[in-house]
Every structure is written in structure tokens, then in C-alpha cells.
Amino acid sequence: MLAAMGHPQVVDPSHPLVERVRAICLELPEAVEVEAWGRPTFRAAKPIFVHVSASMERPFSIVVKTDPEEHLALMQDPRFFGPPYYDRNHWVGVDIDAPDTDWQLLAELIETSYRQVANVRQRTALDALRPTHAGG
């Protein structure tokens, strides 16, 4: 697949780490993948909830939108960083290529990010998939 005009491909979309992120993202209701800025992005229909590759220097990373109540705690964790070009009060980056990557935590952060941008119908559909999470 050709990269969008003017943007070189930052990361191989078929890399196993990207495939793992894709599998987590695409199980969420109405989630779609759209290539943008030479990177895979995952969207709740239109709004982005995951960007793969925070920067050219960190191709194996993801950027997620945080729950405002969790943001400061995440930024105090050395695994997370303020990604360039994103609002650092709402978005965090995390590398996915470390040998000790916590994929369960990443799946929770991806779902939280989805909930930050999803509409009511999408959140309701997600709650139906996650009965223990319904209502908060």
C-alpha cells in the first residue's frame, strides 16, 4: 500500500507488534484502521483513539488518549512519555517493543482511549461486550 502523499511509511503495517495493536483495536465496536501521516491510526468511526509510531525515532510505540483522572499517574511512570505534536495533557506515548511490554495494560489503555473519543452508541456497544465495566 502506498503511503499518503508526502508522508513516508514510518512503520511496516504488517510487523507483528503492529498486528498485535491492530488486533486489540479492531475488536472494539465500529473501530476502523486508516493510514495517516505514514502510520496506522485506529478510529472509533472518525475520531482517532490510537496512533502507531509516536515519531520517526520511536516507530514501535503507540499514542493513546488518557482518562483525565489517570493522566498524571501515567506521566509519572517511566514507561510513558509526552509524544511530540500531541496535547500532552491528554495523550501519552508508550513503546511497544520492550521485552517486558505489558500487553494487558496496553489493551486497557487502548480501551480507555477508545472510550474518550467514542460516541454514546459505541460506548454502549462496548459495555455490552464488557458487562463488568458497564456503568463506570
Number of strands: 6
Gyration radius, rounded? 14 Å
How many domain modules?
1
Across the major sheet, the strand order is: 1-2-3-4-6-5
Query: Are there runs of 5+ residues with pLDDT below 50, and where?
Result: none
Please provide a written account of the structure.
InterPro entries: YjbR-like_sf, YjbR/MT2646/Rv2570-like. It comes from Agromyces albus. Keywords: DNA-binding. GO terms for molecular function: DNA binding. This is MmcQ/YjbR family DNA-binding protein. This protein has 136 residues and is an alpha+beta fold. It has one domain: Aspartate Aminotransferase, domain 1 (Alpha-Beta Complex), CATH 3.90.1150. Helix content is 31%, strand content 21%. It has 4 helices and 6 strands, in the order H-E-E-E-E-H-E-E-H-H. The chain has helices spanning 16-26, 71-76, 103-117, 120-129, and strands at 31-36, 39-44, 48-52, 61-65, 80-81, 91-95. A 6-stranded antiparallel beta sheet has the order 1-2-3-4-6-5. A hairpin with a 2-residue loop joins strand 1 and strand 2. It starts with 15 loop residues before the first helix and ends in a 7-residue tail after the last helix. The mean pLDDT is 91.
Could you write a compact summary of the structure shown?
It comes from Agromyces albus. The protein is α+β, with helices and mostly antiparallel strands and 136 residues long.
Output the keywords.
136 residues, alpha+beta, Aspartate Aminotransferase, domain 1, 6-stranded antiparallel sheet, 31% helix, globular, YjbR/MT2646/Rv2570-like, YjbR-like_sf, DNA-binding
